[in-house]
Amino acid sequence: ANNSYAARELPADFDTGWRFGLDMAEGTKTKSGVLFAATVPEIQSRVLAYFGRIGVYAAVNKVRTGVLVSWLPFYTLLNSLFGTGAFNKRVDAAALASPEDFRRGILAGYLAGDGGYSRRRAMVKVYAGSRSCQLISDMCFLCSTLGIDTTRTEYQVIGKPFYVMTVRCEDTHRLPMTG
User: Fold this and answer.
1) What would the pLDDT profile of 72-130 be if each residue is shown by its tens digit?
2) For residues 154, 157, 160 and 166, what is the CA-based torsion angle, rounded to 10 degrees?
């Protein structure tokens, strides 16, 4: 596989957005590329299929805790657009102004990695959390561009701030499918 960034144009479509969103939730730089900490087989399969389509080598790591993508220029791109480290991630302004399909993909990928839900009687609550205040603020803004109302709450976890975006119950039907 050709792993040079110059040989690729990544489309601003749902699948690429999903990949970027998953990186915001689960991506970590390694010596040889990016590790997406995904233990769910369906998410691993989706990551492998995406990189297979664009001709980049990716494989489930030996301990099956994620998918390793051996393409350092991809990590450089992700880092420049979305930051790195739990406290420093964000959504790039260009991504916030991108086509709706791409933004929906970002949201779906992020929720697939860091999202969750709870159910109480007939009410479903969808949420996602991060150590990065900027990332949660940006994801709330991204949701607003898709007509989805959210709230942002700050908690203290082990003496450090943790931020949660919660989707209003009335708007959960507007969320993209995450899988």
Assistant:
1) 777 788 888 888 788 889 999 989 999 999 999 999 999 998 888 888 776 778 889 99
2) -20
Work out the mean pLDDT of the chain and round it to a whole number. Answer: 85
Residue 128 and residue 165 in contact, taking contact as beta carbons nearer than 8 Å:
yes
Residue 88 near residue 95 (C-beta atoms within 8 A) = no
Going from the C-alpha of 82 to that of each of 120, 121, 139, the distances in angstroms are: 34, 37, 12
Which has the closest alpha carbon to 69: 33, 42, 38? 33
Confidence at 2, pLDDT banded by 50, 70, 90 = very low
pTM for this entry: 0.85
Q: Are 52 and 69 in contact (CB under 8 A)?
A: no
SS3 per residue for 135-174? HHHHHHHHHHHCCCCEEEEEEEECCEEEEEEEECHHHHHH
Contact 59, 4 (CB under 8 A): no
